[in-house]
Amino acid sequence: MQERGRLHVDGADYETEIPDRAAGSWKGAPDRTRIRAFIPGTIVEVKAKAGDRVGPGSVLLLLDAMKMYNEVCAEIPARVRSVLVTVGDTVQKDQLMIELDALRTGSS
Fold first, then answer.
1. Is the full-model pTM beyond 0.85?
2. Is the pLDDT assigned to residue 70 strictly greater than 90?
3. Topology (CATH) of 31-108
4. How many CA atoms lie within 13 A of 10 on its CB side?
5. Which of 10, 36, 48, 101 could cross-link 60 (Cys pair, CB 3.0–4.6 Å)?
């Protein structure tokens, strides 16, 4: 029997079936306030600090993975709560690097 999951995309809710082969790894929708490494790598530059206000597309840090620099960006309007990595740190896949507090549109 297949599991069912819920997705929230662009203000709409969708119900979906999770294939049996993926059921054990289903984690639901990503939390856009918890910035995690999408691949193992090394922190090259940290551009954000606690208290900074960021918006969608704001570069938070640079991650060197497989000899390529990857910009890790905010996806939502937010304030940086904490930065958990420093330049030179090695991170593993899914390691938490930055925590954000989401801002409502129009808040300061």
1. no
2. yes
3. OB fold (Dihydrolipoamide Acetyltransferase, E2P) (2.40.50)
4. 0
5. 48
